[in-house]
Structures are given as structure tokens and as C-alpha cells.
Amino acid sequence: MRKLILTLFCSILFLNLQAQQTQRLTQSWEYLKGDLGGIYEAIRPVKAGNPESVPLWENVNLPHSFNATDGVDPDLNYYQGPGWYRTQLTINNPYKNGRTLLHFEGAGQKTQVYIYDVKVAEHIGGYDEWTADITAAVETFRKNPLFQKQFKGKIPVEIRCDNSRDLEMIPSDLSDFNIYGGLYRYLNLVYAPQVSAEKVFANASVDVKGALGQLKIGTRLLNPDGIDTVMVKILVKDPQGKLISSWNKELKAFYGTKDLWETTVKNPKLWSPENPNLYTVETSIIANGETAVHKEKIGFRNFEFVKKGPFMLNGKRLLLRGTHRHEDHAGVAAAMTEDQIREEMVLMKEMGVNFIRLGHYQQSRIVLELCDSLGILVWEEIPWCRGGLGGESYKNQARTMLTNMVEQHYNHPSIIIWGMGNENDWPGDFSEFDQHKIREFMKELNDLSHRLDPSRKTAIRRCDFCKDIVDVYSPSIWAGWYRGIYTEYKEVSKMEFDKVDHFLHVEWGGDSHAGRHSENPDNALSQVKTGKGADERAGDASLFGGSARVSKDGDWSESYVVNLIDWHLKEQETMPWLTGAAYWPFKDFSTPVRPDNPVPYMNQKGVVERDFTKKEAFYVFQSYWTTAPMVHIYGHSWPVRWGAADEPKMIKVYANLDEVELFLNGKSLGKKKRDSQDFPAAGLRWMVTFNEGSNTIKAVGKKDGKVFTDEITQEYQTAKWDKPAKMILEKVSEKDGVALIRVKILDKNNILCLDAQNYVTFGLTGDGKLIDDLGTARGSRKVQTGNGRAEISIKLNNGKSVASVKADGLASVFVEL
């Protein structure tokens, strides 16, 4: 499976980037945090030791974000302001009179581009693609004596990015995610012939029966010199690369988008999550003896949101099993590499995802190409998110970003929904909050989307006073987290479903602190009022004040969240009217509005941590959504359980096998059959009596004659603890120059306090370096303990160090390394 996925992806990447004309500019960059006094400071001659040698620039590779680590620094607000990048390029365009372009796949958030001291382009918006034509500026600078004298035949390029707070930009700084700065997506040097295709629009459709496919192709030319006549050739190839149709014609040059050709494909191989068949459209533009080739992948599929009913794909009901994604990762923030993006999307597919909402902005072309090749349906949206509605420049940015998103991702068969906004009922950025004006602008965006692309649906999430405007609506239902209890999920969903023609539930779930587990995870539910609905309201996300809710009063354990997810998934199997739902989110991500969370500045609702470490919830989804045989005992990250000596304890196994047998310390506790409606764990649960001390648990299941097993070892503690009284700090392991240290919280009798949730702060002095600011439970120097313990790693650097831990009300402790 992985090998096939990698092969598909590499093929698509080659087709789109056309390596002979495009070069990723990843190496030999310098970065300066902050602003310059003027552009000359970036290009003036510098001698070591002279005043011109400061400010100091650092060497970086692209993609790169200003906020690679400070977005989760527990002691700082993340940096928002300008930053500069510079490099020197060797430019040799092979085309006579060709265009030399810098193609930005995304840069945050306002960007200016200079060749030497000449500004050649600027762009507002951190998420759409754009191009700077540097042809003329390069040719002009070649005539400058400094081209050879100072720059040795290279072209100096300087780029200013700026993510400063700006109320007249989207997204709002009130949003629950960082608005990152920098060249955090790939930047490409492109050589194009004198005339080329700026865009190719390939509209592929098919009837419900899949008997006849229609393909309409149009293009927009890049022809700044105004060449009069061009030859256009179009080839269509099936998923195996066989030519199935072609067209060519000489045309008078045109401006704007021109419809070129329509053709039919009989009995096309349909695109679906199970069989993501992709056709290739190859468009050649020939002028003055030079050819520009543009290749796109397309897919034939038919989808429908049935009025007051489910979702249909290619004539059959498909339950959308979804999640969400932010561009955010440990150690790099938004600057994820192609390999990291691929790993994330493959993990989603392995979890069983067939749908994703990209929150809350246009994302990398790499993500969309992977959705196409993996078979993941997509809701993609513009970042009109929270704050209200600004002035005309604010609206123009939204219009431009919507237009760019639709045009740039128009050909992806994975996309079924264009999102107009998110939580637009959330005020705060302007003194005026006018629902009527927000409705009028929502209507404008909705109409614009349908003009640009009549083939897809429009949608928003959580803005009830606009729900009648868009095609598909998602209310805010957080049963068992921000409101209500999770057993109300189906009832509340049906109530909301009945209010609109087309319902899709995106965003549900709850936070879990990785490595924190509970013997009584549902205790907080007894405090929560029921029968009041489960829609999130103002203030519910706060950890302070208001009515009782699990998000504030619960234990944030993995144990609770797996129960919540388990209930939702088993209920979704009994909701024939449901189009689908999308869990929020797949991966923990950084946010400036949650400084008080167990990992500060992290939204911890993911089923994997920010570094792809799987939480227990990942396997609950797998047990419902996948067919590849799996079996998983809950508690791989739960080293110590607790209770009385003879107290029965539940062991849960999440599996998609028909039957599982459980063994405790080598003794069979019997076989149980899986029944998805037998909550929890689909009936695969056993009440057991642990031995004090070490216990070995093994689960065994079979499918098609093959045996599948999982095994863990857990300690069982019967000693009861008093309140936290002290800490101990110890080195746990060392490998490849990296030491792992662990702090434990004990009571006055040296008994481990297994429910302790103290904040602890790690420190270090000496030669080593804390591996922190990762936004993970084991990669933050300030973190809440999970079951009375916390860990962090230290790069020793072949030296000596002293590590420390402090916590309010407890004496600090130290360990030499």
C-alpha cells in the first residue's frame, strides 16, 4: 500500500512540476528576523567586522517559517512582524524570449519580492499560489556592473514576508490557529516559453450510472508579448497512460479564459475512495517553434447531497468518514516538507479517512494531489474565520482568495465543496457586528463560487444566520465536550439535520493530553446538564467560568476521548440519513488562544500528536473504518493502573476482527465477538482482576486463517496516595547522544500520585540542550503531568549538564547528566 501510494504521488509531482523547467529553491537561503532599514541593507557589500555585517542573517532551507518553534514557546507570544529572506540565483532560461518566474506555493502573509533593489511583485494573503515575473528585472540587472563585480554572475533575490497583526486581513487573529509568517511552502524557479498556459481548466463529469463521461477543457494564456497565433494540442490519457482522445487547432491568441474543446469518454474508470482512478490531460501550447506542456490529473465521479438525505458518490450512498487538517508540525510549524505532508496524509488513509475538511484556508497543492491519488474527498475553504466583517480591502482579499482557490484547485477530483467561511458568527475585531452585512457578503461569495465553478457545492460551518445561503451547512455540535453529553449526539444531530436541506457535521471530538489515562473517565458527565442541546456557544471553549462542561471540568484523558469517539462512531452506523461527519482534527496543532492547556498553546484534540505520535484514539477509528486486519489493546501509553487489590478493572480491545481472545498473565479470559452497537469497544471488553505489580495482557484474533495479536505490560498499584508532596527526577535512557529524563510526583510516603496534574517546568544548564518547543506532551519544557509523570529529552552534545524541574508548591529537583 505505502509503495503504491509513493509511486502514485511521485508520478503526479513529476507531471505537475515538469522538472526540466521548474526548480525548487530550497537551498542557500539566508533569513533575518525583523525588518531592514531599507532594501540596500540586504545587498550592500559586507566585510567581516565592519558595521555593515550586522544585523546577522542565519542560513536556512526552504520551506521555512518565522514561527518554527515560538508558536508553542510557553513563555512568549509568537512573533508577528516582518522577516527577510535572500539568496543569489544562477538564471539561464533556455527559451528565446522566454519568461523567468518565481512561483510561490504560499507565503505568509504579506510578501514583497525584489531583484537587487527593484521591487518586482507583492502579494497579500498567506495561502494561495502566485507568481512573480522577474524576466525584465533580471535582464536589467545583467547590465549592471555589479552583476559580475559583486555578485559573480548571479541574480540577487530578496523577499520580505510579514505576518503582523492586521484587522483588515483574513484570517482574524482571534482564530484558533497561528497565522504564521515566512516562506513556509515551496518556492519554485520556473522557465516558460514566450507563450504558455497560465492555467488549464479541465471539467470532468459523468452520469450517475457511470456510462458516459464529459470533459470540457479551457485555458488561459501567459502571453505578455502579445504573440498573434498559437497552436494548441490536447491529449487525454487513461489511468494506465493509454491515449484515448486528442485534439489540436491553430488559434488566434486570446486573453482571459477560453473554452477550447469538449469530448466524451465512454464508460470511464470512475474515481472513488476505493479506486481513485486518475486520467491525464496534456495541453501543449506551440508558438514561434517552442512548446510549453501543461499536465493535469483529473477524475470522473458523480456526487450528490440528497435533499434531506445522505451523500451519494457514483450512484451509491457513501458515509463521509472525515477529519481535519491544519498546516502545522512539531519543529517546523507551517513549513512542512513534502515528505512530512505525505506521511500525514498516508496516516489519515490508514486510519480509514475518506473525507477531509482543510481548515481554515487553501492548503498546499501537495495536499490536494495526495487527496486525489489516495482517494480522499475534500472540503476546502477560504480563511474568513471569526472577528466579523471588515472594510473594502478586507472584502477584496476574501474575493481574491476565493477566486484563486477555485481556479488553482479546480481540476482536483477530490474536491466536492468550496467553503465560504468558518464561525462567522464570532465578533470581536470591529466595533460593529452587523449580521445583515455579513449575510450580504456571504451571498456575494456564494454567488461568486457558483459562477467560478457550478459543479461543486458551497458550505460554511457555524453561522446559523447564514445557513440558508450556502448549499451545505454544518452547525456546531460538540456533544460531550463543549455542551451536553455524548449520548445526546444522534438526537441533536437529527434535530439540526431537519433544519436544513443539506447537512454535514464537521468538527466534533474533545481534547486529550497524550499519556494521561483515567480509571473513571466519565465522572465529569454527571455534572453536565442534559437536554439543552450540544451546540457550542460563546465562552464554551474557555477553561474558566460558565456552566459545567467536560471541556472545563473533565480530566482531558485519552480514556475519556476514546469513549466519546467510540460512541459517535457506533451511532453513525445507525444514522441512514447522515451524509457524514469529520472529527476535529487529525493532529494536535498550535494556537495562540489556548495558553492554559496542558501543553501550552496547543489544541490537543488530535488523534495523533503534533509529531505524528499516535494516541489511543487513532485505533478506535481504525476499528470502525478500516478493513485491513487490526487489533489494539487500550493502554499502550498507560504504564500504571490503580485500584483496590481485588477490584475488577475493564480491559478494552479495539479491533475490526469478528472475534478476539484475551489473555491476562498467560491465562485465557475467553473469546468475545465484535458487535459495533455493544458500547464500549464494540463488545471487546473484559472485566479482570489484576495482580499487584506487573501484568501482561495479550489479545489474539484471526482473519482468513491469519493470526493477529497485540500485547502490553502494565503495572497495577494498590497503594493509595495522599496529596502531592515532592518530586523525583531521573534519567530513564540514553541513545545516540540523547537522554530521556522523567519527573514523578509523590506523596509524603513516596507513593506515586497517579491523578496528579501539576504543571512542571524543565530547565537545563551546561553543554546540553532541551529538545522542547515541539508542542507535544514529551516535547515541552512546561507541561502538565499525565498520571503523575512527565518526560522530556535532552541532546547531550558530548558534555555535562544538570537538568532541573520546578513546580508550584513543590521543591525543585535536579539530576546530573
Automatic annotation (TrEMBL):
Glycoside hydrolase family 2 catalytic domain ranges (all copies): 306-495
Domain named DUF4982: residues: 647-707
GO-annotated biological processes: carbohydrate metabolic process
Annotated segments matching region Disordered: 514-540
InterPro entries hit by this protein: Beta-gal/glucu_dom_sf, DUF4982, Galactose-bd-like_sf, GH, GH2_Domain-Containing, Glyco_hydro_2, Glyco_hydro_2_cat, Ig-like_fold
Keywords annotated in UniProt: Glycosidase, Hydrolase, Signal
Glycoside hydrolase family 2 immunoglobulin-like beta-sandwich domain ranges (all copies): 211-301
GO MF, any single term: hydrolase activity, hydrolyzing O-glycosyl compounds
Keyword Hydrolase attributed: yes
SUPFAM superfamilies: (Trans)glycosidases (SSF51445), beta-Galactosidase/glucuronidase domain (SSF49303), Galactose-binding domain-like (SSF49785)
Pfam families linked to this entry: DUF4982 (PF16355), Glyco_hydro_2 (PF00703), Glyco_hydro_2_C (PF02836)
Domain of life, source organism: Bacteria
Entry annotated with the keyword Transcription: no
N-terminal signal peptide: 1-19
Homology family: Belongs to the glycosyl hydrolase 2 family.
Name this protein carries in UniProt: Beta-galactosidase
Organism expressing this protein natively: Pedobacter caeni
